[in-house]
Amino acid sequence: MMSLLHDVLQLRVRYSETDQMGTFYNSRALEWFECGRTELMRRRLGLSYAGLEAKNIFLPLVEAHLEYAGGARYDDLLAITTTLAAAGRAKLRFDVRIAQQANGKPVVRGYTLHAFTDAAGKPIRPPAWFIEQLHRAAEPASDPLT
Amino acid sequence: MMSLLHDVLQLRVRYSETDQMGTFYNSRALEWFECGRTELMRRRLGLSYAGLEAKNIFLPLVEAHLEYAGGARYDDLLAITTTLAAAGRAKLRFDVRIAQQANGKPVVRGYTLHAFTDAAGKPIRPPAWFIEQLHRAAEPASDPLT
Amino acid sequence: MMSLLHDVLQLRVRYSETDQMGTFYNSRALEWFECGRTELMRRRLGLSYAGLEAKNIFLPLVEAHLEYAGGARYDDLLAITTTLAAAGRAKLRFDVRIAQQANGKPVVRGYTLHAFTDAAGKPIRPPAWFIEQLHRAAEPASDPLT
Amino acid sequence: MMSLLHDVLQLRVRYSETDQMGTFYNSRALEWFECGRTELMRRRLGLSYAGLEAKNIFLPLVEAHLEYAGGARYDDLLAITTTLAAAGRAKLRFDVRIAQQANGKPVVRGYTLHAFTDAAGKPIRPPAWFIEQLHRAAEPASDPLT
User: Fold this and answer.
1) Which of A7, A113, B2, C99 has a CA-to-CA distance to C143 between 20 and 30 Å?
2) ipTM, 2 decimals?
3) CB–CB of D74/D18 below 8 Å?
């Protein structure tokens, strides 16, 4: 259950993501989590999630958790730090921290837990090449990951 | 190009549909248009759009037009009046008016224009049974449609 | 920490809420949670959340948890069961179960935890009248709520 | 009614923006239009729309038009070309073309028309400094803008 990989993505809050309270609507954070893990997979694993689906490997969410720590307004620049926290035999977990890029103030933190399935939703085992690619990409154990 | 069918759907503005201006975010209107035509098809034509897709008939948008006439706040009850305005050989057009249920104040009006395609996006001709069902369901020409 | 109030809302999956996997996109569940608690407050407490905000009482999310149990396709009719599970001095918690209306198959379960704040986001104590209204509305302790 | 300013923004289709047809859901295009004009204003006019609102100048949509020309799948990289097409006394119009970055294939084209209002939604005249800033930023009339 070692911390395998992490990545930081910058992203601006869209007007469409705000609500009448003046901050982002709560569900948008899950969409930002998705952007974070998409880029982590592309940049750190060298594979696109779109490409995975083309190989009949899907990663539907089975669980999500979010803690809202602070506001984020329209056009604020956010830093989304995603960590591939666990790669078990049948699940992937991404831990996410979102903070204001300007001053590091926390906005949301949480995680998503994913199953491996085929297109029909049937659970599958992650293919060997996928697990190997994860391990090859993983930073050395001595890497002081957050 | 006679006016064929119309239907009114009531719907409340969700908090997630507001933005920091305090009214609904502009793109939500297209989602409400979708709700309007889904219910028109179910109630007036006796067919579900989900069922159409199961028969390999898709109705992707080719054009949309929106005129924003007034605000709508969280929890406001809206009346969505949808009219199946035209059923040509290759296109369907839905005209939509959204107003405040309480006082009739206009919120949005516009239309969507749809092609007939198969699942792959290839244009198809609408099947004869579909056209017949439209005509059977159509109100008499004397019906004072708005 | 007794179970105070519950309510069931029916709602159809919109096309806009699906994704290319053919089921609903994960973040939509948080929007359905919102619909559930809005109606619980209206029907069981006799107050609109819009009205609360007009009195400068806001209930921003501080935490959300979701467990995805099954798919839900476009136009599926869902039953959203919301329970006001806890009304402490400074927090409200809503427990939510979403299931297929047709056959009871579970779709999502989870909760949202809310703080009491003013419009500026400053924590406030829930006003006495609000707490009283909660307790007046609460079902008898013997009610075998889930 | 000369063409004043234009800008190109690149953006990837999010999974949350797809629908069960496998392409983007139609309303997302209006959200991408927003991203395009936000960046045009920042890069070409040197002003943030957030900053405009802070000065009590709002630009609500009064009209939008969209023509859907082709699909765009999850993770496709899009090029959003936004042109500030008209700056009348009381309205702004942004013309938008969205195409696949990889091969230029058209995805959507359309426009949004905006009024000038204050925070309460009351129409206002655009301030002189705003009009001047537009004209200073405008490319020479000889620029062969589309």
Assistant:
1) C99
2) 0.91
3) yes
